[in-house]
Design brief:
The structure is a homodimer.
Chain A: E1 5-6, E2 22-25, H1 33-45, E3 50-54, E4 66-70, H2 81-87, H3 92-102, E5 107-110, H4 114-125, E6 135-142, E7 145-150, H5 160-178, E8 184-188, H6 199-211, E9 220-225, H7 229-232, E10 237-239, H8 242-266, H9 271-291, H10 293-296, E11 299-302, E12 307-310, H11 317-332, H12 335-345, H13 354-359
Parallel strand pairs in A: 2-3, 2-5, 3-4, 5-12, 7-10, 8-9, 8-10
Antiparallel strand pairs in A: 1-4, 6-7, 6-11, 11-12
Chain lengths: ~375, ~375
């Protein structure tokens, strides 16, 4: 490694604690690397240990719990992240992913977008054995409940076996993180009947139904659900391909932002409305906090040998701090191992190629 | 026809006006046929002429402008609408579609869901020549602007040529109905770059770009748009397949309803909040009206030889009245003919089979 490593404040060395820090790529955030670093300081104040990758002169003063690695090269906006990752070993996200792969960090947080995180993760951290494809699983900020949607954009298309595995991955995540013992899983479609949906969805429906016939299964398959299930709370997990999931998520965010800004405008439109808005502010505050995506910290990147968390690029320090804390907690809860074991138990892992099983290789996980 | 026809009030016979009435299937609405009939009376008071199909004893008193055909048989909840349509010639939606096909009515409104409307329409009214597939085009109720999304659920999957044609159909609709001379059309995807999206979307992007190179084209192709474009107003038309469109629409409706009810709850949570809510009500009223789906009347069913309008099954009389008025106005504006001419001019119609063109058949449209 040719990167300059700047020591953090006293007592923040990497050996202080049993668990390695969280590697954070600061490049690519809408508000710049400085904001991500500010989020890291907030997370560190709450006990997280962080290995920051980004342009050192923008990352601010060192702080206890934080180690800064100067990595100014950003590929966050690359149109072809896979090529950029291969061509740019010094890119901040590549260095961060390598730190996780090497065991110098225990989880990855990437402020610079899904594409770069996914490419760097696949290339360096690699897929968990038996996983077809990584998925981005986002716990949606719905008042009073949590609905986890996956995939929200790791892949633009999916095959049957991918979506089936996503159901098991989502259920394992929700069980580990939210303590739901037998998650209710729905398959996103354009109608609730088993026959509704694209041919792919109809196939996946049939397979999930066949695989969850007994009440002993790891999750309850409730069948197809429509888009409104993403906020209705009748299910804990909603499974879809990354194209549909991403479109639905952005549409929901758009509606939410439009409505909040319309309410704000209405509450400024007259002295009477201003007074009304002021009186209502306290009661609405809790709701606004509940639906704030920053409070959740972003999406889990599942399917790699170490956990990833992808916050939204437009987050402020508050959201980045949550992302780091989420990654740190997720590593401690062993989401990756729990998921792997749940999938193995359910027979939902991709079978090893024949040559590997004949050779009886020791498990690399 | 063995259906009993009950004459409407004085002066409401079918011969009073040059244009035939709108055929309305009353079965299948959440609030029952009575509510649809009440909507028809509201529309008739505003000058529409209506041919109502439903259970006569539930449709209320006859009224000027309204003719009632007793058609109690409903297939609105059928799991297999295509078979139900073929097996049930007396079903209300089949009778309504036949009235449109025969010229006894000029447009179709179906309160009983997309599946039945589409099957009955395809079977009786038939596709316009050169149209691959019908599409449901919904002008979304976005404050201060209109974004028309298609397809919101006519087909669960689409091929390249379908989506390309949807772009031209949507543009022609928006030009005819909203007077937008050169609509901006976007293609729904999980990223704005041309390379982002499913393989299908990437293909469609390339073809739409190639077909709209000159500023003389019927619309401006703005490229890929993400889900938030459905409320952002940067485009007039958003094109997608019926699966994705339906999921996105339901997700948006879900968020909108959840937020409105959370605001309502907040405004009832304390005496102080109640007062605030009361003071704010007037200012928020306009916004609530703007985003109310009932105000728009529902989706245009495009691609048949006559216009269809599909209101939401959970509408009240207000929404059904708007649907009928929308159908009546759309028939008067000749949406079907305008769309057909625009597609012919753009070379966007499916070419006639060789046998038909060799035989030089006269146009049947």
């Amino acid at each position: 490694m040719c990167a300059r490593v700047r020591a953090a404040g006293a007592g923040a060395g990497e050996d202080d604690s049993a668990a390695p820090p969280v590697a954070v790529d600061c490049n690519g955030a809408d508000l710049g690397p400085r904001e991500v670093a500010a989020g890291a300081r907030v997370a560190a104040e709450q006990g997280a240990r962080v290995l920051l990758f980004g342009p050192v002169e923008e990352l601010g003063a060192p702080a206890p719990g934080i180690t800064i690695v100067d990595a100014p090269l950003s590929i966050a906006k690359s149109a072809d992240p896979a090529s950029a990752v291969r061509a740019s070993p010094q890119a901040s996200i590549v260095q961060a992913a390598r730190a996780v792969a090497d065991g110098r960090a225990q989880a990855l947080v990437c402020a610079g977008g899904t594409g770069a995180a996914l490419a760097a993760g696949l290339f360096n951290i690699k897929r968990t054995r038996g996983i077809y494809r990584p998925a981005l699983a986002l716990p949606l900020p719905v008042p009073g409940r949590t609905v986890t949607l996956l995939d929200v954009g790791a892949s633009a298309e999916a095959r049957r076996e991918h979506l089936v595995q996503f159901a098991f991955m989502g259920a394992a995540l929700v069980r580990t993180v939210f303590g739901v013992s037998r998650p209710r899983v729905g398959l996103l479609s354009n109608g609730e009947e088993a026959a509704r949906g694209s041919p792919l969805v109809v196939e996946v429906h049939a397979e999930l139904q066949a695989r969850t016939r007994t009440p002993l299964e790891a999750f309850e398959f409730v069948g197809n659900v429509e888009g409104d299930a993403l906020v209705a709370g009748r299910v804990d997990v909603v499974v879809t391909d990354g194209f549909t999931g991403n479109v639905a998520l952005k549409a929901m965010e758009g509606v939410s932002q439009t409505m909040l800004s319309a309410i704000r405008d209405a509450a400024m439109s007259s002295p009477r409305a201003k007074l009304g808005g002021a009186l209502l502010r306290g009661a609405l505050g809790g709701f606004r906090t509940q639906i704030d995506p920053e409070g959740q910290g972003g999406a889990y990147l599942l399917g790699l040998r170490r956990l990833g968390v992808v916050p939204h690029g437009r987050f402020t320090r508050r959201g980045f701090a949550q992302a780091i804390l989420r990654a740190e907690r997720g590593a401690r809860e062993d989401i990756v191992g729990q998921t792997q074991r749940a999938l193995a138990q359910a027979g939902a892992l991709r079978e090893a190629p024949l040559s590997a099983s004949l050779a009886s290789l020791p498990p690399r996980e």
